[in-house]
Amino acid sequence: MSKKKILIFGGGISGLTVAHECIQQGFEVHLYEKKKYCGGKAFGLKNEDGLHIEHSIRVYGSSYHHLFQTLREIPTTNGKSVFDHLTGLPGVILASWENPSRNQLLPTAYATPKIRKLLVLLRILRSWHITTREAIQFIRLAMDFAIRSDARKARLYSQKSFAEYARLDAYSEAFRQFLTALLDITVAAKPYASADVILPLLNRILLPGTVAGISSSMNVMNGPTNERFIDPWVTYLKSLGVQFHMTSSLDEVVIEADQVTRVVVNQTDVTEADAFVLALPYQHVTRLVPSLHLPKKNHREWSFSYQFYLRDVPPDLVTRQTFNLVLDSPWKLVYCIESEPLWKNVDFRPDVRGILSVTLSNVDTPGLLTHKPLHACTDHEVQAELLHQIGFTYPELILESRLDATVAYLPEATYQQRQAEFIGWDSFPPNEHGYRWLTDSTLFIPEATDGSAISVETNLPNLFLAGEFIYTSYRIPTMEQANESGKLCTASICRYFGRSYDKAGQKRPEPPFRSLRRIDQWLHRR
Question: Which Gene3D superfamilies does the entry link to (predicted)?
């Protein structure tokens, strides 16, 4: 009996997860990726100049239950796995460009007593002129998700934005700015995001879970993402029999008799299969198969990074080898110094000793130097703004800089000539300099006003979806959500072919205060 053939389009975390799970279920698996490399938004590559480029500073939180399971299954060397490449951070620095005396480390290491973490958080809140009453309110909001029963959550959070649920208008400007900045920087989320998205995030900040094998609730790879994570994964999948088709662009999905019968790749290659998976960004899925009638995603957020390559890393910058959240930066910046000892045994170019990686999450607010939003600035102006907003005082150490590969800054004439390359990209109109900013890494944060949740299953029985826009138990668009969506997608494929899937019932570990949730459930029923 021949194997059922599965075609997966998209080599990001969700597509690789579907390939990982399907090949283990005995399917014939083909993965198609438009680029020369896999990883999607989680890429980290080395360019032709020998410089490492990352899409963004990438955190692996202790709540990444499904992703960590996958990392443990990807072998590397000496009997170890990709999971062993994780390095725990001592904490995150909540920083200020305006008043550096506010800069404080919020501990995230498991070894730090919880009471000390709470006291440090309260001290940080006070330094941002947040009253004791509002500090307690912040803690209450973080606890809210942990102590409510599912039934009460559904009633209280349904169709409400976080701003509405928390009644942010009733609080001081300092409190609103602090909370808004924290959300914007961590996940590019705004107060209009759904309450059932933001409240779990606050809960994880205050009450992070613990995971065996790591030492902190905040972790990073100990080197470039592709080198330490994606490339070993692709190598492993190839060894299992997954067939990769790189530089392969999906141009058409052919539908006949309410089924997908074939696809057209690279304009001319027609391929048939038993089932098809679109593990592509939301905007590409809706463009390729408009008949799916997916609910609209109204608000798009940009988040991307610049890398500045340093000829030296002074001692005071070594202490910045963690996430530095510059809460009062207009462009909502987070930065990290990537060098030894955080990155271990990395093959840097001989003249490079480390990388200053800066990720921004707000392209609409005017900057401090130019007084213009990012999309109105030149590439040079953006770099100057980033360095100014993080308070970087070593410009003489910068050898070169590079823009995230998922973003482009092009003359309008060039864009018009190459427009076919940027189908599905989000863009701003040309600025006064005649240049246009574009991105292929748009984030869609779930809102209270969003329509029905998007499932892995579609109205075409042999077409399945996976990606950050899929409704999962982890609502924030992250690697964890993408990975979980890939497993949900595999479960649906197995059901379609009448097979069992032993990971379909895996559930996320329960947060603390289970007894309180049971009491709340009993009270809610009365």
Answer: 3.30.9.80, FAD/NAD(P)-binding domain
